[in-house]
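Data availability (excerpt). The following record was deposited with the supplementary files.
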Amino acid sequence: MSRISQDQIRRRLDEAEGYLLLELPLRSLEILESRADWAGMQFEACLLKGEALRELNRYREALKPLEMASALRPADSRVALALGWCYKRTNRLAQAIDSLERVAREQPGDALIHYNLACYWSLAGTASKAIEALATALELNPELRGLVPLEADFDRLRGNPDFERMVPGRAPA
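Predicted structure:
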């Protein structure tokens, strides 16, 4: 493939990403579906297509390109977060947890991965793992503490003394 073609491909992917940033996922999807092969940029194309479909609440459809992106870059946190989001919304909570656990081992310093794991473990009814993941997330990024009171995923944990110590406005015991 010539250099110009590679540059053109990069520009099309940049355009698709731009439409996503402008909250125009349908336009992004049109671009991404205009080619079957993204010649050397398949990961980027799969990730963007999955994100566009996710933005359109087409979670089941988003799984295929996101799973392809994950196969190409298994330790990418963006893919794991998007996969987790879609798995959760398609009633595949165990897969959401597996996706994030795998990346958490590769990137233990990613607070958002741990925060989402805490949400999914809470939904799964595993309080100890949820609290452990949340504690890690808050240690890595204390600003996430402000999200906790509004997060419905943590409703099962409310009233748990270990969880309540992490809630903003409450002093740790």
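Summary of structural features: DSSP finds nine helices and no strands in the chain.
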